[in-house]
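Question thread 4412

I'm putting together a teaching handout and wanted feedback from people who do this every day. The idea is simple: show students a protein as raw sequence, then show them the structure tokens that encode its fold, then repeat with a second protein so they can compare. Below is the first pair exactly as I plan to print it.
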Amino acid sequence: MKKYFLMFAIIATSVLSVHAQTENQVEPGDTVPVTLQTSDDMQEDLQQVLNPTFGDYYEGLTKKITFDRMIPPYGLEVTFDKTVHIIFPSSIRYVDLGSNNIIAGKAGSSENILRVKAAVKGFEAETNLAVITDEGSYYTYNVKYADEPEKLNIEMKDFMHDGIATNRPNNSLDIYLKELGSESPRIVYLINRAIYTDNKRHIKHIGGKRFGIRYTLKGIYSHNNLLYLHTQIQNSTNVSFDIDFVRMKIVDKKLAKRTSVQETVIYPLRAYNFITTVEANGTERTVFALDKITIPADKQLIIEVFEKNGGRNQTFTIENADLIRARQINELKIR
């Protein structure tokens, strides 16, 4: 009985195979039927092609990003056996790597030098790198692998140094940092530079002189809840003056006996041309930006500069009356 069933199955399979071959053969002069797709079928096929989405197709209502809003990236080549160093005009605040094929980090104790190299030897897929610096500049790079990169040491020039909006879209917005509040780092930088370049002395009664070193305050300025202090150190000796650190603090004017000293330390947000050495018979200036402050009548702001490995420390005092007379900055004149 099993033999009959097995023979029947073999014959049925052979007949179906021959029938299928006969149907697939088209003889000369035969008419080939054509199946028409409906619009729903075509839409379904299109969806399969575009899933996942690419190009200009997105699910839902979207608006295309035009080229005038694009920040064009720089081209950067990296390799596995050598390190590429990028020097920025100010401290690095943020770094983002597009993939694990590259690694990056600050160079030692330096705040404005970024070292970049390949983590995977000979990687093929192009990746990207983005950097935000302290004064609010944004840099972006397309990174690819090269056995011998053409440029190993790169110096980035900020667009604010020459007034040219390099690597920025025409309608780009400023980058804001938390410690500066509603003021953009770009405006802070431009105000500091304008005060330093203008180099006018509006205040003549605040300063001190000891051991041949004169430390003076040339001006106090205000803009958008920030204060700017323009200071100058003049060295009239034959020995250079090496600066260890500068300290700003609010203290009581008079202290009664057996009263503990109460002081509030003020930390500058930015320092333009912060120098570490004043050469013999030389003069240097610095502009400090700090949060807007006012002090009670019984307190005062003291600014001190300490000499490294020396005792020629300098100090001067600012009263609240001086702070509230700060000169307003006209933003239109500094752009």
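The second pair follows. I'd like the answer to focus on this one:
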Amino acid sequence: MIRERLEDILRERARLQTGDPQMEAAEAAPPAAAAPPAAEDPGAALRTEGLAVYYGHFQALRDVSLQVPGNRVTAIIGASGCGKSTLLRCFNRMNDAIPGFRLQGAVLFKGQDIYERGVDVVDVRRRIGMVFQKPNPFPKSIYENVAFGPRINGYEGRLDEIVERALRHAALWEEVKGKLRQGALTLSGGQQQRLCIARALAVEPEVILMDEPCSALDPVATLKIEDLMRELAKEYTIVIVTHNMQQAARVSDWTAVMMMAEDRAGEMVEFADTRSIFTNPRDKRTEDYITGRFG
């Protein structure tokens, strides 16, 4: 039942993207599983090589090798505790402040290992932005939330233009253009999350990481964020962690499946285009997870 529902979502998504009313019938048969991007794919925005993460003596991730295609939405799914968020935070060094954090392997952005000595962490986080599970606007005005990043980064141009452009990209401008000096905390939860996306966009990142960005939102606000992700992928690389498999099927182009080993270390068991993951997975564990047998 779960699998059939996911296949329905994929067919509907394909039909909407093509505008072809016959697409649903044409897409009925599942395709052969597609291979993930080739080794050292020049189109990959992010790449991990043999990534292992430890918190003290506990190993949180083991031997994760992954390539994130540029200008696509990549979803990371898997059962709770399998290291999805840990992996996501590795992409812009958000784990650095956690006591006992230690990393082995490599995380490459545009071919450079971001964990090499001498790398500017502030610049990494400007180019690889993050949106968290719970909306976290600053206790400032809507305008000041968006202007904050460019201002502290020394931007000397017209802030009004930056703020408007970021809010338009986040599909929020029309809702707030008449109250930019109003406190950000007066917005609804969904609006606050889109404001946080606008705040990330204001510093002109190349990658946007989203850690369960819709988990605290109602269905209407969730749909707006999902539509926004698809639109943003035209200009940015998006990586999203989600527990919602229907959401992964609706918005992502590629999907990575994480599982927890017996020693509780997270491992990536499969990575492929989203349609293949949900209709013809290679790994039995993926099949069991997406059909609800565990997780």
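Top answer:
Good format. For the second protein you could add a caption like this: The chain has twelve helices and ten strands. The CA atoms of residues 56 and 100 lie 4 Å apart.
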